[in-house]
Here is the input.
Amino acid sequence: MSAIDPPAICFQLMQTHEPGVQFMQLSRRVRNLKPSATLAVNAAVRRLHAEGRDVIAFGAGEPDFDTPQNIKQAAIDALSRGETHYTPVPGPPEARQAIADKLRDENGIACGPDDIVITAGGKHALFMVFQCLLDAGGDQEVIVLTPAWVSYRPMIELAGGSVVEVPAAIDNDFKITAAQLAGAITDRTAAVIINSPSNPCGTMYTPDELRELAEVLRGHDHVSVISDEIYEKLIYGGIDHLSPASLDSIAERVVTINGLSKAYAMTGWRIGYVCAPGGDPSLAKSIVKLQGQMTSNITSFCYAAVVEALTNGGAAVEAMRATFAQRSVLMHRLLVAMPGISCPRPTGAFYVFPEVGAHYGKRTPAGRVIDDSVSFATALLEEAGVAVVPGADFGECGNRHVRLSFACSNEHIEEGCRRLDGWLRSLA
Here is the structure.
């Protein structure tokens, strides 16, 4: 079995019963669902660590920092106060007000607490948005600007939509043009999703570039805009963040997705949120109705942490951002010095998405032939002990790339890049 092949990993985990034993019939949607490539890499790394292997992992999409103490203490105090009961489905008014205040004051989004739904992470927020916007059999398309996060496609398809990929070029820092967007919109287009700063690319659109895209969308009022801004505070390339929902021309059709996971080092807390002003009926109310049949509220004593993070977490976020900024320079400098590697300078999030296709067709010291991103990542992990995420699952244009996260120490980055560089130079 390939160390990081997602289908193989899942098949191994599922085949735990004896041959001939009958189990319940699973739905086609689950049988056809592709596992997350990023989670598969993380699982492979844990397995190899458990076997005693020395692995440098560049796969994790989470900060390596602990949650700031004041945020943790807010949840501890809430727990001690007995805030352990059901809350309103979208969250208590004070937590939603804190989010609305943040979006209004920092992002320029005209919204109030009734436009906010607090969710079990940003992933859950996106899942519900697609469920509310798309119908099975509705022949609806969602434009995805690729390379794009691996979970967008399965979420869209599970909701009954189809994905239209609009590929961005590496020489344009993985950003599409307004002309590309205009050419992709049809009568069947239900939504377009924009993720800036980007996972997996680590680059971001400038305010002017986003205004150009908005100008295209202004003429298509049947198209909703989903803006995934989970990395908005982790920027360091001299580019200002702009929320599309702050643009009057499209504001009523923009759904903003965000959360506390990345900026506040709170991935395990599972706190995301949706901001969806406008509409009749409003999307926010529809999401509340759906969430009421799914998870209801998130963990009740975590709401106090939401308020504390958004009101008193700025200094901690800035300290982490500054560290990521330094790491981004180090990672990029080491990568572009390697043979056959092309990589735009990262300007946001904590990823790089280098092109490694110059090495396709070569053979590794162990005799493996490199012919795509999966074989590249598999051989690198097995032979050099470096874990990266294959680019294939980030869109068709990603197959000549791999994703590396620099949410790790300088020593980790330097050692992992030393191994990668030596392995690349050994290919023939």
